[in-house]
Amino acid sequence: MRAYTRQEAMLRMRDGVRLHAVILRPVDASDAPPSGLPFLLARTPYGVNEYDTESVNRDKPELAASGYIFVYEDIRGRYQSEGKFVMNRPIVAHNNKHDVDETTDTHDTIDWLLKNVAGNDGRVGVIGLSYDGFLAMMAGIDAHPAVKAISPQAPMTDVWMGDDFFHNGAFRQSYSFDYMQQMESQKTDLVVDSKLDAYDFFLQCGNFESAVDSVSKMSDLPTVKAILTQPAYTSFWQAMAVQEHLNKVEVPTLEVGGYWDQEDMWGTQAEYAALKKHDDQHEVFLVLGPWNHGGWQGAGRRLGSDFGSIEFGEPTGTEFQQRFEAPFFEKYLKDRQGFDLIDTASFRTGVNQWERYPTWPTVSGYEPVKLYLESDKKLSFTAPVATEDAVAASYVSDPADPVPYRHQPMQSTYAKGSKWYTWLAEDQRFVTGRKDLANLTLPVLDHDVTITGDVTADLFAATTGSDADWIVKLIDVYPGDAAINPGYQLMVAEEIFRGRYLKSFVEPAPLTPGAVNEFRWSLHGVDHTFLKGHTILVEVQSSWFPLYDRNPQTFVPNIMTAPKKAYQPETMTIYGSANWPSHLEFRVEQ
């Protein structure tokens, strides 16, 4: 373990607000070049008091052993920093010293460090996970000249379109309820633990407004106000989004994400895709692994060797740190050899092996296919030929009995013993037998089928109501006689779409009862082999509660305040004919 000295400081920003930072420097810097050591900066809303020799060696063992000046900073308005906290503070025009955002605070922080911390070589790397990943990306926008490398990991990128608070217009109710209190009702982030079963609590509340009203002063929290009054993709949410600012590559960037990330799986690939369009110097990289939110960080010989009930056979998290993360910063901050990633590294589950790709989503060597939903609960790679209105599946969705997203009891998101962290790998047999969803399967596979790249759902569907949610899950079904996890149903890709946003995310509109509409949305990236003897299952449902709030299924202007009478059972019909060929699109290895 390499020893570090610890210093605390208050760093003055351009508008006079001071931010609190912890600075760690190697006790023995005899191996440092005469020019000094580079900085590794992490900015966070979650508090920095815990950082010391032990934590830096535990969290970043390779980087700690190499020797950097580590800086951890409380962002504006959090913990010991002054000023006002603003959730995912939007970037603003910088016309005077009072026009501040996270790009300016990063810039001013680096100015202070370069001038006041002895023994630095003038180079800075910035790293962060989740909210900290959002902050790391801010360091790459209007970047300080000293910033030479950034690694946004599972970054909050667009919290309405696909990250924390909404997915394709569907509101992530239980998570937002807990997180808003944790972040906006206090300067620290004390965990919310209601001790109630979240499923029962939100069902009894009815709508989100009633849930908010059950907590004193929660309706006064800024982001809660926005959720209650602006559930569509208004300018408020658009201003918070990062991807529209990524119109050039200013510094080498290593994006990192997990396939079973329960919080910010969307942001990693969205930022990579936005930056890659401008990557003329080949300085944008992507690593995707078999992890939940942040499952690749920390220490331990077997870090990332398993997740939920799945075994990967090797320590994928440790391998990420050793093969990709540490060499990336060593290359761009210390001019050392060892980082040989051309573009993308992905850990392919099923066969459990690292793959490298020259582009992502990968194209070369993979054939685009469509997996069609057919009648009699079947799937087929052959397009339907019948032109009549063939029905692939139909079910009644009842808001009074919504499909749970994980087993009950459901603890508060971050409460002790919460199963939130691994729910995306939960065995789906706990809901498969329900009558209010559709299950369609392929015959047992007689050969391995590898899917790599984006998966897209394309449903031709109708509802007897005037609004509907559609959830599509791509599932790997293990054989009943498998030696490990017999019969296990593992979600490989999954996502929701709220029907009112069929034509516009900005201006929701009712669906016409009985009319067939085409709903098309991404289930995100996959790199998975369905092994011979396994089965591919596609599951479609219309509720995923209480992570997502209940769709009343009759159109109301604002679901957050929907009256009880609006919640009505409706029949959902999915078609599978030549005219209306519901299917999934993806690429398979040739």
What does it look like?
The chain has helices spanning 53-59, 61-66, 102-116, 131-138, 173-184, 198-205, 208-213, 222-229, 235-240, 265-276, 316-334, 429-432, and strands spanning 4-12, 18-26, 37-44, 69-74, 120-129, 147-153, 166-167, 170-171, 253-258, 284-289, 306-307, 310-311, 344-348, 353-357, 366-374, 378-380, 391-397, 437-441, 449-463, 469-477, 489-498, 517-530, 535-541, 570-575, 583-589. The chain has three domains: 4-153 and 243-288, 3-Layer(aba) Sandwich (Rossmann fold), CATH 3.40.50; 166-238, alpha-amino acid ester hydrolase ( Helical cap domain), CATH 1.10.3020; 366-589, Sandwich (Jelly Rolls). The longest helix has 19 residues, at 316-334. The two termini are 47 Å apart. Helices cover 19% and strands 29% of the residues. The model has no long low-confidence stretch (mean pLDDT 96). The strands form five sheets. It has a ten-stranded mixed beta sheet with strand order 1-2-4-3-5-6-9-10-13-14, sandwiched between helices. The radius of gyration is 24 Å and the shape is globular. Helix 4 (131-138) links the parallel strand 5 and strand 6 (147-153). With 590 residues, it is of the alpha+beta class. The protein contains twelve helices and 25 strands.
